[in-house]
Amino acid sequence: MSRLRIDDEFEGTLDAHWTTTLAGGGTLDIADSSLRLALPAATSRRYADAQIDDYANRPLSRYPWRPPLRLEVRARASHTIQATVSDPLVSLRGTAGFGFWNYPLTLAGGMPRLPDAVWFFAASPPSNMALVPGMPGCGWKAQVIHAHRWQSLAAGAPALGAMAWARISRDDRAAARWVRRVTGAQEAVLNTSLTEWHEYALEWRAERAYFWMDGNEVLAAADPPRGPLGFVAWIDNQYAVATPHGVFRFGLLDSGAEWLEIDHLRITPL
Question: Under CATH, what is the fold of the domain 6-269?
Answer without folding.
Answer: Jelly Rolls (2.60.120)
